[in-house]
Amino acid sequence: MTFETLLVSAPAPEVRLLTINRPKALNALAPAVVRELLQAVADAAGDAGVRALMITGAGDKAFVAGADIAAMSAMSALEGREFAVQGHALMRTIEMAPFPAIALVNGYALGGGCELALACDFIVASEKAVFGQPEVGLGIVPGFGGTQRLTRLVGKAMAIELCTTGRQVKADEALRIGLVNHVVAPDQLMAKGLELAGAIAQKAPVAVKLAKHLVQRGQDMDLANANAFEADVFGVAFATDDRVEGTRAFVEKRKPEFRGR
Ligand code: CAA
């Protein structure tokens, strides 16, 4: 699958990397970029050989500096709404994909770029990463889920501060407030992503898929229902060959050989 603004590669077995490739515009998400990302994520989700997805931005300056402001300046209200609907569809597709998605944030992650990173299952940032929701400075509000996902990750008070001041958050603060999982030197970003993706790819495929699914779905449920859901899915995991192999390998003191069944 080839795209105009997106590079698709496999930097390691079972790992798919999507690189948004508009460095001159700081990888801004024009409507066509959102469409291409959606197709690329859906394609990866339909490929049983993909165990982890990584998303990053081309160049050394930006992950994604937001939705494309030039494109938005010409949109009607209805077109703006449709753009947001497309953006939400992309973010939900990432969240519901059957593998963990890791955002490798190499620079600016502003507006829609911050929202794209937030829709990934977790974020690894370079020391040069900068996060923010600057939309109120443009007379708009976050439109790709930022108000909701930022709140779930860093809490209401910090989310309201960031969405109403547009204040930029550097990597060290992002780590402190729980926005990102790791901060590494810029030249170590890909290696860290591959280390984590590689660790995921070594685990039991069905169990990994179920674990992500439980966390993603469970956070929108009340605790009693989420725990009941977990107990059911725990039972489902017991029905897999990999559960038999994983527990037996432990008892026999050897490495498990998972087959994804
Ligand atoms: N959309 C379109 N083009 C963008 C862009 C964006 N979001 N961000 C940067 N660019 C373009 C600039 O227009 C510039 O293009 P030209 O060279 O053709 O003039 C190029 O990228 C480089 O940008 P700067 O010259 O501005 O670079 P800088 O280093 O001086 O500043 C920056 C970097 C602070 C990130 C600055 O570019 C900036 O503030 N960008 C906009 C950030 C923003 O407001 N994002 C939110 C957008 S709204 C949104 O995302 C809505 C939503 O929730 C869905």
- The total number of structural domains is 2
The CATH topology of the largest domain is what? 2-enoyl-CoA Hydratase, Chain A, domain 1
Largest sheet: 6 strands, mixed
Under the CATH scheme, which architecture of the largest domain would be assigned? Answer: Alpha-Beta Complex
Q: How would you describe this protein?
A:
By secondary structure, the chain is α/β, with parallel strands linked by helices. The protein has two domains: 6-201, 2-enoyl-CoA Hydratase, Chain A, domain 1 (Alpha-Beta Complex); 205-251, Orthogonal Bundle (Lyase 2-enoyl-coa Hydratase, Chain  A, domain 2), CATH 1.10.12. Helices cover 49% and strands 16% of the residues. The protein has eleven helices and ten strands. It has helices at residues 31-45, 69-73, 77-96, 112-119, 146-154, 156-165, 171-176, 189-202, 205-218, 223-238, 241-251, and strands at 6-12, 15-20, 52-57, 62-64, 101-105, 108-110, 122-126, 130-132, 169-170, 182-184. It has a six-stranded mixed β-sheet with strand order 1-2-3-5-7-10, sandwiched between helices. A four-stranded mixed β-sheet has the order 4-6-8-9. Strand 1 and strand 2 (15-20) form a beta hairpin. The two termini are 28 Å apart. The relative contact order is 0.11. The model has no long low-confidence stretch (mean pLDDT 98). The structure holds acetoacetyl-coenzyme A. Acetoacetyl-coenzyme A binds at residues 25-26, 28, 65-70, 87, 108, 110-112, 115, 134-135, 138, 140, 142-144, 146.
